[in-house]
Design goal:
Number of domains of chain B: 1
Strand content of chain B: under 5%
Helix content of chain B: over 70%
Radius of gyration of chain B: 21 Å
Oligomer: heterodimer
Order of helices and strands of chain A: HHHHHHHHHHH
Order of helices and strands of chain B: HHHHHHHHHHHH
Largest sheet of chain A: none
Pfam family, one (chain A): ABC2_membrane_4
Largest sheet of chain B: none
Protein name (chain A): ABC transporter permease subunit
Number of helices of chain B: 12
Low-confidence stretches of chain B: none
Strand content of chain A: under 5%
Keywords (chain A): Membrane, Transmembrane, Transmembrane helix
Transmembrane segments (chain A): 53-72, 93-116, 128-153, 160-179, 207-227
Largest interface: A-B, 37 and 34 residues
Number of strands of chain B: 0
Protein name (chain B): ABC transporter permease
Shape of chain B: globular
Shape of chain A: globular
Radius of gyration of chain A: 18 Å
Distance between the termini of chain B: 27 Å
Number of domains of chain A: 1
């Protein structure tokens, strides 16, 4: 960990209007939760559905994509990463610091709003809220690691990330069950499923499979990012 | 336009023919249209638009193949449902290419270079929006045309009706292209940071569509079909589908549409409002950009 890199990255991510975009997305989840509670549509089925569809399947991948690629992608693109890479700081420290910043951002803008929305919707019924909070958090860690690695690997990181999050996890998941099992979203849902007795939450992956996969993907992506950053070629900007 | 513009600075006078406003607009339009598919830029910029265009063609080709091999004409996808079915791919294309057109000049502070030449502010904006809309139209209309030609070749019955549906489908594509281009350009013009524009555009799409789906699900559950239909106005794809269903006489492709022709006119008016509002907003944005 390197405090200076962390501070610079935070400033780049939260400076000026950028924080607004990060804030607007979770605000919508809270608004939806308030409206549903106000109109009396806050039974367990709807609440679980909203938390899963909006919190876990939409908000989390989006914010992890913005945070994960945002902490390192723009710097690589415009060559500013050179100013960091030419300092005597080990590359893995740089990657880990960036990853930690991404995880903190995802936790702040995705896990906390999910927690708030859950409390607004269900209160403490069926441990739904802690279950989703933990599920979103572990999912967020894995997503962040994958998207940071993608940002180091490719200039098209955001698009590839979108294709993965939207096409692979959502579209293919509804046609091909195999694709559904190989998705961070389902693994995170599996963790949630294990923590709550509520029946509307069910995952296609066993907890015993999901946790090793989550750990393996997170660690693997972090290693890959550190490894690739050691031999990064800086091409000219587009 | 007066003959004396900023680049006549007195060293050498230009006596030749001036190509005029139409030429300027056409040049900008062609340049932006090429940029939308990464033409004239490095190979890295071409990968994504063409990959997405190829993905767009797959279901059409598959559908035609099924009709041809299995001799089941009813398996041909409906023309008006194509864009709604593949909305995720279209949204990703919009998200990756809208910032290419709308963010780069702002990011690199090169907008004043355009406007120090005889380029009108409005022409500049219209050329950008038109180019993005054309690119999106091509993305949707090519697979729909493949479907139609495939239907002709495999002799799907009732060819006159197929033709009418095809025309309606194309009209729907035009509307989809205009509305999406308008939304994408506005969002991208306000998020010049690299990578952020892509995320912002996709966020607008995903948030609106997920929000609408959840409300529609709850409203249907309570058999409140009026609300389920009208809330569809909030999601871009659902909005255009309302026009397709109520004014162009197509079958429903989105989850819910409100009843009555009136709702079609409301949706069409909203589309027009989005496009006009977007032109106004982007016009203001580019006029100010780079001057500070």
């Amino acid at each position: 960990m390197n405090a200076t890199i962390a501070m610079i990255t935070f400033r780049a991510m939260l400076g000026r209007r950028r924080a607004l975009l990060l804030l607007a997305l979770p605000a919508l989840l809270i608004v939806l939760a308030v409206v549903l509670r106000w109109t009396g549509n806050d039974d367990l089925d709807i609440s679980a559905d909203v938390l899963q569809q909006f919190g876990l399947a939409t908000l989390l991948p989006l914010l992890a994509l913005i945070a994960g690629t945002g902490v390192i992608g723009p710097e690589i693109d415009d060559g500013q990463i050179m100013y960091v890479l030419t300092k005597p700081i080990p590359r893995q420290v740089i990657v880990l610091t960036k990853l930690a910043v991404a995880i903190v951002l995802v936790a702040g803008f995705s896990v906390v709003p999910t927690l708030l929305a859950g409390l607004l919707l269900t209160g403490t019924t069926a441990q739904l809220v802690p279950a989703f909070t933990v599920g979103v958090l572990v999912g967020g860690v894995a997503y962040s690691a994958v998207f940071v690695a993608l940002a180091v690997l490719s200039r098209n990181a955001v698009t590839i990330g979108l294709l993965y999050a939207l096409v692979w996890e959502t579209l293919l998941g509804s046609f091909a069950p195999g694709a559904k099992s190989a998705s961070i979203q389902q693994w995170a849902l599996s963790v949630t499923d294990a923590l709550t007795p509520a029946s509307p939450v069910s995952s296609s992956v066993d907890l015993g499979v999901a946790i090793p996969l989550l750990v393996a993907v997170t660690v693997g992506a972090a290693f890959l990012a550190a490894f690739r950053l050691r031999s990064l070629t800086i091409a000219s900007a587009e | 336009m007066s003959t004396s513009t900023i680049h006549d600075i007195g060293y050498r006078h230009y006596e030749g023919r001036r190509s005029g406003r139409a030429y300027v607009m056409r040049s900008l339009y062609v340049h932006n249209l090429r940029a939308a598919f990464g033409l004239g830029r490095p190979a890295r910029a071409k990968v994504m638009p063409f990959l997405l265009a190829a993905i767009m063609l797959l279901p059409a080709a598959g559908s035609v193949a099924v009709v041809a091999v299995a001799k089941r004409p009813e398996a041909l996808m409906r023309y008006s449902s194509y864009a709604v079915t593949l909305q995720v791919i279209i949204a990703i294309f919009l998200a990756t290419q809208a910032p290419v057109l709308a963010s780069r000049e702002i990011r690199f502070h090169t907008v004043p270079l355009y406007f120090s030449r005889p380029v009108g502010h409005l022409d500049f904006v219209l050329a950008k929006l038109g180019a993005l809309a054309t690119a999106l139209f091509a993305l949707m209309a090519v697979p729909v045309t493949v479907l139609y030609i495939g239907g002709l070749v495999t002799k799907v019955p009732d060819s006159w009706h197929q033709f009418l549906h095809y025309l309606a489908g194309l009209a729907g594509c035009v509307l989809f292209a205009l509305v999406l281009a308008a939304i994408g350009t506005v969002v991208a013009a306000f998020t010049p940071r690299r990578g952020l524009g892509v995320a912002a555009v996709i966020a607008v799409y995903m948030i609106t569509s997920t929000f609408t789906l959840i409300i529609q699900g709850i409203a249907e559950h309570q058999t409140n079909f009026t609300l389920a239909g009208w809330i569809g106005l909030l999601a871009p794809f659902n909005l255009v589908d309302i026009v397709q269903v109520r004014l162009l006489g197509q079958a429903k492709s989105a989850v819910d549409v409100p009843s009555g022709t009136f709702s079609g006119f409301v949706a069409l008016a909203l589309c027009a409002l989005i496009v006009a509002g977007s032109i106004a907003v982007v016009y203001r944005r580019f006029r100010k950009a780079g001057l500070s």
